[in-house]
Amino acid sequence: MARILSDKPCKVTFTDNIGGGKLTLFHRLPTSEERIEYANSYVSRNGRKIKSTIGEARQKFGEKILTGISDGEWQKEDKTPLSSNPESPAYDPQWKNLVKKYAPDVIAMLCLHVFDNPLTIDMSDDEEDPT
After folding, report:
1. Which runs of E-coded beta strand occur in 7-88?
2. Tally of CB atoms within 10 A around 72
């Protein structure tokens, strides 16, 4: 499958070990500037003290690129469905704030997937050895 170079939303599906199902998220691709800012925000320095800020960075940048959630996979505490789609009867304009508050692990995983691990090395044996 080819990588599509576009501003259209991307989607990724995770297995949710807490809810016991699948969660599909929609996101935009980060800009080059956001990728650089994210990488530069792993740590902060105050004088001689260095502090890891990767958790905060994953929340900040995951939230920035999150554009939607899939209908039917999320419920509010009162068991009503939650949607990010304005045309859905389950739409709640506060959907992102609810995900941010109650599922920060999902936002962090989205960031990890998009910013930290967008590629893996193909170690398949079907390539010829160049040596």
Report:
1. 10-16, 21-27, 43-46, 49-52, 66-69
2. 13
pLDDT tens, the chain, 131 aa long = 788 888 899 999 999 999 999 999 999 999 999 999 999 999 998 899 999 999 999 999 999 999 999 999 999 999 999 999 999 999 999 999 999 999 999 999 999 999 998 877 778 866 566 66
Q: Give the residue among 30, 56, 32, 26 at the shortest CA–CA distance from 44.
A: 56
Helix (H, G, I), strand (E, B) or coil at 101: helix
Q: Quote the CA–CA distance of 33 and 119 in Å, as a whole number.
A: 19
What are the residue ranges spanned by the domains of the chain? 10-116
Of 19, 13, 21, the C-alpha closest to 102 is 19
CA 46, CA 108: separation in Å to the nearest integer? 25
Length of the chain: 131
